[in-house]
Write a sequence for this structure.
């Protein structure tokens, strides 16, 4: 993938809209938003005072959620949503989640439990109570022994679904041995052997994350003929993130037009900079880090739950 320098990392952000692009009707100046700033290249990220967010990858921030917490949701939330939808758990089914108390797993537990499934969370013993608060029925401490042996002891008749956010190929294979025929194994780490599982009558899926605005579907590649339509806002927080799908968007300004506020945001033509069409500028209030973005409310980065 192309890298554009000076390279600014970060994809998730939350802040206050300061300017909107031409044709944008879903947002207004002053709106509190959260979203993902995705581009077909690395750079122009959200670790900045001002960021541009595509309309289709933005949403209004709930008033009950702070900027820090909101900016930690897009990447983790869309990844959890994608894996759970790929697994498609039904009420009464037993679902095992590996890495259940990480940033993604914490959301996945709640999504699975909301469907009426029985959640078995594989995590550290220190986080067993936290996993149960989120909706897990049972927990397995992976530090107490081989997780596959511990799972077999707890579920001698096997399980219906295995969702993975942390295992390597070998551990996932051992745990997948306990999935019943007709079941499903989904991994966000891409370590599922789809063909081998198919021979056993098990559906295997390597899922990444849902595309903004199109839950559960892979992102579409942006065509040069279909540019962005971003929104601009003052960022209260930014974090690591994902990609956003292409869409029917129009440029907000000419390539040689300067940003509405703040320093130039994006290179749109050789030797020139300008705000990309259909975006919003966000002013960052403090620098973000990967660890802080994964920290759940009320916990410091050093004590954040493991599992990814």
């Amino acid at each position: 993938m192309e890298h554009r320098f000076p390279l600014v990392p970060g994809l998730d952000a939350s802040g206050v809209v300061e300017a909107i692009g031409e044709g944008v009707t879903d947002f207004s100046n002053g709106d509190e938003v959260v979203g993902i700033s995705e581009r077909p290249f690395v750079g122009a990220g959200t670790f900045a005072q001002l960021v541009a967010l595509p309309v289709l990858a933005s949403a209004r921030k709930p008033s009950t959620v702070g900027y820090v917490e909101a900016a930690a949701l897009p990447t983790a939330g869309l990844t959890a949503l994608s894996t759970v939808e790929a697994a498609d758990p039904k009420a009464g089914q037993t679902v095992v989640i590996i890495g259940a108390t990480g940033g993604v797993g914490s959301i996945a537990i709640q999504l699975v439990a909301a469907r009426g499934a029985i959640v078995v969370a594989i995590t550290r013993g220190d986080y067993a109570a936290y996993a149960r608060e989120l909706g897990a029925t049972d927990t397995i401490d992976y530090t107490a022994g081989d997780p596959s042996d511990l799972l077999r002891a707890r579920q001698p008749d096997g399980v219906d679904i295995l969702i993975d956010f942390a295992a390597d190929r070998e551990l996932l294979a051992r745990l997948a041995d306990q999935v019943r025929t007709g079941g499903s194994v989904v991994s966000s780490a891409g370590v599922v052997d789809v063909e081998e599982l198919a021979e056993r009558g098990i559906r295997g899926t390597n899922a990444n994350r849902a595309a903004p605005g199109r839950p559960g579907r892979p992102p579409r590649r942006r065509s040069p003929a279909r540019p962005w339509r971003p929104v601009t806002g003052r960022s209260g927080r930014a974090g690591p993130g994902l990609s956003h799908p292409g869409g029917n968007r129009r440029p907000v300004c000419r390539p040689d037009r300067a940003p509405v506020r703040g320093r130039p945001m994006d290179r749109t033509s050789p030797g020139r900079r300008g705000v990309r069409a259909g975006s919003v500028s966000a002013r960052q209030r403090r620098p973000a880090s990967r660890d802080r973005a994964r920290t759940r409310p009320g916990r410091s980065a050093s004590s954040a739950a493991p599992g990814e």
Summary: Residues 64 and 70 are 10 Å apart (CA to CA).
